[in-house]
Amino acid sequence: MSPSPQTYPTQAVILAGGQGSRLRPYTDDKPKPMVEIPGTGTPIIGHQLSWLAREGVTDVVISCGHLASVLEAWLDAAELPLRTRTVVEEEPLGRGGGLRFAAAALPRPDEDWYATNGDVWTRFALREMADFHVERDATATIALARPRLPWGAVRTDGFGHVVDFIESPPVEYEVNAGVYVLSPSFTELLPERGDHERTTFPRLARERRLAGFPLPQGAYWRAIDTAKDLTEAARELAAEAAEAPGAAGTAA
Fold first, then answer.
1. End-to-end C-alpha distance for the chain, whole angstroms
2. Beta carbons within 10 angstroms of residue 46's beta carbon
3. 3-state DSSP assignment of residue 100
4. Other C-beta atoms within 10 Å of 1: how many?
5. What does the pLDDT look like over 209-225, one tens digit per residue?
């Protein structure tokens, strides 16, 4: 008998309850995921929902907190490519507590699910990450990014002579990209309050049940934390559009 075909997650959680204090004044009247990337006319969460839909997700639970009504009003008015449901924390539960709270509203609790932080804007093949998760029999799999330093770096020799300047080099270590594939059993391991990155993930790592999926070469990823991140994302989008086939000024 041939093996059953791989089935992929069709449900996800977006953590959208943070106050986004480092993005003020943009977040004075809206939650962080509702901030627009300049030039796109779409908030961060709009890009996330479109990406999740392209990756086969049909249902998303959005964990809200700060200015939740603004996000809910946008969701009600927008034409979305999937079904959404919001859950609102009456008091801050922390990222792990918020994830657990939202996971309780998933429509298929006995199936794998994706999760992402509400300030992450990325594009890569989630199905490849889901395959990676299954192949390693993991309870949780985290996407790993290798961001670039926001400054130029200097290389010196053993005598203290400067030998090279490197503009925005990639950092030495991979970082948690804020995108996860999670098994059904993961939910009960989350704290009622607190941060899963300081409790649940270290525990799973010690038990060798946590996998790390390196983002594919060339995959776009950016965490929108500051006004500078907004500017950089807009610049990168414009450069990407200019390089696209058929863009004005490019060769046919």
1. 50
2. 19
3. helix
4. 3
5. 999 999 988 788 877 76
